[in-house]
Amino acid sequence: MISRILIVDDEATIRASLVESLTREGYDIISAETGEEALAKCHSHKFDLVITDLKLPGVSGIEILQALRNQGNSTPVIMMTAYGDVDTAVSAMRLGAYDFIPKPFKLGTMKAQVRAALKATNFVETKEPATDEKIEAPVKKAPKAPLNTDFEGQYMGMIKACPGLSHIANILEKVGGSRSGNDTTILIQGESGSGKEIVARAIHEISRGSQERFMEINCSALPETLLESELFGHEKGSFTDAKNRKEGLFELAGGGSIFLDEIGEMGILLQARLLRVLESRRYRRVGGKDDLEVSARVVAATNQKLAEAIESGNFRNDLYYRLQVVEIEVPPLRERPQDLEILINHFLRGFNEEMRLDTLPVDAKLLEMLQKYPWPGNVRELRNILKRIMILEEPQRLQAEHFPPHVLAGHNPRHTSQHHALGQATGLMPLGEVERLQILYTLEMTENNKSKAARILGISRQTLREKLRLYELKTQDDGDLLADSAES
After folding, report:
1. Greater confidence, 108 or 302?
2. pLDDT tens across 20-73, in order?
3. In 302-315, which positions are buried (b, 16+ CB within 10 angstroms) versus exposed (e)?
4. C-alpha 321: how far from its chain's center?
């Protein structure tokens, strides 16, 4: 029987892209532009899955979910949003959303989630109907899952394809084949933007609980008290604003994975509680009395040198040793230039699907130029530059002129004052034009903060002002950049 799916999004491009992609997968797709239209179609049709944007004009995605549940409709709902954060994700999960996908997303990721949601629904429908009374045991146990021997998931496949990450692929295959289960904690270290989250998601793919949720949280984004509640949940009345019981990420993850990003930013008191949880594999909600069992695998990541944080008293050494049962170091992109072509092609495929383009990859000459750049922002910088090019240029093929001058010159933007070398390296335009474009790019990158732009360019603020006058570039002290040339 063909599964029927409702797509709800007020962005026509995304809606059309999802409709076309999922129709090709063999699903029966119906779309709606607003929440009101979606609810009307839910009254007149039976759907096996609803995929909805969170932010909609009028009735929101959360309100669609609430309305369905209030009507006793248990259709699984996948939430999409460009405004995703942990609070919203947890709220959606608590209301019964199947999953939460931040925009922009890869169509391959969405297809995989759709298959998982439909499979989970079929499984749930074979169970005995639940009674009205909810009975909660003091200790929750996840069902045992078989070892996952499929190492060719989306993220694991990416790691195995990159020669510079072959040692990580070897480690992950051993972890996936181990019978130690989710008790094995993993610590991922590496520079910001180097791909630690990709490694974490690959670990989830090869874990026993790969069919369950992958829950992530940035430990630097929340104060310690709120972070504790997000991780472990809380009971009603446990503190002033605790008006209802709340499930934490450990509970929501079930037998899946919990990714603690920027673990080095976690407060010292919460570190002590996390250590106890990892040791005992049990925890309590804030204000709770009943022990709950930890079934999820814990993966932590940091761009800090934890040894230095231990010496300064900001990180517990016992927690460090407990986390690093398996330790993985992700090398920066500058140390693995051989991965650049694979990463570029990977991102291009995703952007081509997302934006419905047919951009061809870089040629060998341009690739060689890009491999000379140190990529201080690592994989994240590469992805952001490519996305900017795809959005603004929509090129048939990536060309040198699409990339910022400092990238082509092979220089870190903080050391681009040697403009003569920059001009020679590009060989595409007069030196003055290269300098003008570099100033424009740096101002855009710093959101027109002239002091910061001057530091990055390696010149004084006064010199930057003179350059702006020289190239007839005008800025407002607290406004947007205004350029007289349409080329800028």
Report:
1. 302
2. 889 988 999 999 999 999 998 998 889 999 999 988 888 888 889 888 887 878
3. bbeebeebbeeebb
4. 27
Three-class SS state of 80:
strand
Extended strands (E) in 245-364: 257-261, 282-283, 292-293, 297-302, 326-330
Q: Where are the domains of the chain?
A: 4-124, 154-331, 335-483
Q: Provide CATH code, domain 4-124.
A: 3.40.50.2300
Total number of residues shown for the chain: 488
Give the list of residues 6+ apart from residue 348 with CB closer than 8 angstroms, or none.
359, 361, 386, 390, 398
Q: What is the CATH architecture assignment of 154-331?
A: 3-Layer(aba) Sandwich (3.40)
Give the CA distances from residue 267 to residues 43, 217, 228, 259, in Å, rounded to whole numbers and listed in that order.
48, 14, 10, 17
- Select the more confidently predicted residue: 446 or 434: 446
Sequence-distant (6+) residues with CB within 8 A of 390 are 348, 351, 355, 357, 359
Lateral strand order in the sheet of 99-102? 28-32, 4-8, 49-53, 77-81, 99-102
User: Phi first, then psi: what are they for 481, rounded to 5°?
Assistant: -75, 135
Whole-number Å distance between alpha carbons of 8 and 10 = 7
Do 154-331 and 335-483 come out as alike in CATH topology? no
* Angle, helix 461-470 to helix 450-457, in steps of 10 degrees: 90
User: What fold characterizes domain 335-483?
Assistant: Helicase, Ruva Protein; domain 3 (1.10.8)
Burial label for 223, CB within 10 Å (0-12, 13-18, 19+), is exposed
Please give the distance of CA 135 from its chain centroid, rounded to a whole number.
Answer: 35
Decide: residue 61, CB within 10 A, 0-12 exposed, 13-18 middle, 19+ buried.
Answer: buried
d(CA 62, CA 68): 10
Q: Do the beta carbons of residue 370 and residue 409 sit within 8 Å?
A: no
Residues contacting 107, CB < 8 A, separation 6+: 17, 18, 21, 350, 353, 354
